[in-house]
Amino acid sequence: MPVEAATAGDGGAASANTTAGEWVSADRDAELRRMEIMLLERERLAALGADVATALAQSGTLPEALHRSAVALVEHLDAAFARLWTLDEAGAMLELQASAGLYTHLDGPHSRVPVGKFKIGLIAEERSPHLTNDVLNDPRVGDKEWAAREGMVAFAGYPLILKERLVGVMAIFSRHPLTEVTLQAMASVANGIAVGIERRQAEAELRASEQRYRALTDAMPQLVWATDERGAHFYYNRRWYEYTGLSEQESLGFGFTNALHPDDKERTLAAWERAWRAGEGYEIEYRFYSRPQEQYRWFLARAVPVRDERGLVTQWVGTCTDIEEQKQMGAQLARLNEERERMFEEVSTPVVPILEGVLVLPLIGSLDTVRMERATKAALDEVRHTCARVCIIDITGARIMDTRAVANLSNLMRALKLVGAEGIVTGVGVHAAQTLVGLGLDLQGMRTHRTLAQALAALIKNGHPVGRERG
Question: Which among 82, 143, 288, 361 has the fewest CB atoms less than 10 Å away?
């Protein structure tokens, strides 16, 4: 009996203990299952983040990258469909860029959503996410009949914001409730997509800017080029290749020297190095060879440094303008000027034999140093050639403006005296005399007359022979 009782008692105790153990085991199993589900969910969401990051990193257009991201949202979140909008340049309209899952079309009433209108536009305006696991009772879900028919349970919409700037909206509909972990992962994915959108938009704008730049430079008649911060060329416009006939491989870096005239290379490279080291503008003239034309032509090269916000040079932009015609015109003009100078010298310093042994040098215009040097040389040459005893300097048409002009006139008179000829100055009226004296000309010992006729009359009166008068 005691044994039975003990046995019974033991059996009863064992039965009670077994029931508690089973309860503890079941609770532990449930917790393990919850943890397992949570781990699987976190792995699934981590895979979502990785797939979205990969989608945004792959090459292609922005709509293509966003479509891959929308597909990843549907697959990893078991969503009914997912959509992504971007904000237009005006900041007033959301434009549908991608749709995956139940609906893949991009047209229809949701293709363009005004900011502030409907649930998507309100998310953009408020810059705040909208989440619900009770779609049928959500006041922002307009078409309840559609939601019920399609079995929609949950909705999550996130504004895509980067540095306080709205770039778009992301949204999904789901046929089952969304967990808190899912919503947190969506928020993280939303941030990644916002970064991806801005990067793709910046890349697209850069490509568009480069296309505009290339179109502009290709339309220019000049040779246009650009270098990096080290001075190595990385871009030439189409005109460069058309003119030089060089290939891109021959031109890049410092290949432009392949077209330079050998006589221009050293000074060109020296000037470019000075400008590059100083970070200053660059301007030089040199000759480039054209393979198609088989000739060198002169170009005027100009370049300016481009600096970043820190003031550091990031690149150089330059042009080469064809100045061959200007060079030829300049050379022709120089030749014409030389001929003109020779003619002017002959005309402006004529030494005229007017009587036997008498020369006349009429001076017209400014008595500058160069002009007077020519006049002095012409007068002395003619005196030596004709053995003239008198040289009349007629200043009737001369402009005596300063002491230099007076000094030049005095030097001419002294030079004549040194070669044994008497110098006589004519054209000295009252005003001219006052000017000469005022400017320091010493008239003592210098024969002067008011007119050339008076000087000739005085010479004849004093017995100068006139029988060999020259016309």
Answer: 143
Q: Distance (Å, rounded) from C-alpha 438 to C-alpha 313?
A: 61
Q: Are 166 and 122 in contact (CB under 8 A)?
A: no
pLDDT digits (tens, 9 = 90+) for 8-59: 444 444 444 556 556 656 677 777 777 776 777 777 778 888 888 888 888 7
Same fold, 50-206 and 221-327: yes
Mean pLDDT of 250-254: 94
Count of alpha carbons within 13 angstroms of residue 333, beta-carbon side: 6
| Residues ≥6 apart with Cβ < 8 Å to 67 | 97, 98, 99, 100
**Where do we find the tokens 């089973």?**
22
CA distance to 335, 399, 405, 431, 435, per residue, from 440 (Å): 39, 16, 11, 14, 9
Domain locations along the chain: 50-206, 221-327, 349-461
Q: How distant, in Å, are the alpha carbons of 147, 215, 237, 374, 432 from that of 395?
A: 111, 65, 62, 15, 9
Contacts of 48-55 with CB under 8 Å at 24 or more apart are 48/72, 48/73, 48/76, 48/77, 48/185, 48/189, 49/185, 49/188, 49/189, 49/192, 51/75, 51/76, 52/189, 52/192, 52/193, 53/192
Let me know: does 278 contact 272? Beta carbons within 8 Å. Answer: no
Q: Give me the residues paired with residue 320 across strands.
A: 223, 301
Q: Does domain 349-461 match CATH 3.30.750.24?
A: yes
- Average pLDDT, rounded, for the chain: 85
Tens of pLDDT, residues 356-382: 889 998 887 777 777 788 888 888 999
Average pLDDT on 210-237 reads: 90
- At the topology level, CATH places domain 50-206 in Beta-Lactamase (3.30.450)
> Comparing C-alpha atoms, which of 116, 118, 63, 64 is closest to residue 91?
116
What sign does the dihedral 144-148-149-155 (CA atoms) show?
Answer: positive
Q: Which CATH topology does 221-327 take? A: Beta-Lactamase (3.30.450)
153 close to 178: Cβ distance less than 8 angstroms = no
